[in-house]
Amino acid sequence: MAQSIGYSQLLAHGMFMSSTCAEDVRFIDEDDVRRATAGTFLGDYRVRRQQAACRIWPRGEGVEDGFQAPVRLDVPVLVISGDVDVATPASDGERVAKELPNGRHVVFPGQGHEFTNPRAPRS
Predict the structure, then answer these.
(1) Number of folded domains that form the chain
(2) What is the phi/psi pair of residue 57, to 5°?
(3) Same domain? 14 vs 49
(4) What is the reported pTM?
């Protein structure tokens, strides 16, 4: 059991690296790093470690121009957020929903990035 859990976590880390190196880190602007990390406890440590890892992590080069442009769809879309999600805050969900004419944004109280049972008491 412990071996399968370790393997699962390894896959999750690999997926995280593959997606963030190809889709996020490559677009980080130095001015944004300075602005976002100025005066913080760890400074730019975390972003610099991620950038260093992405320099050696294999990744595809197929991200097209306009990749970061807002998605525009006419179909119904439900955007869900947790109100205590620090990875993808509810404000990000709201910004996405505004671009979707048939979109609805629902924010769940007491939920973070990985939703738990909304009725369960949080510790």
Answers:
(1) 2
(2) -80, 130
(3) yes
(4) 0.61
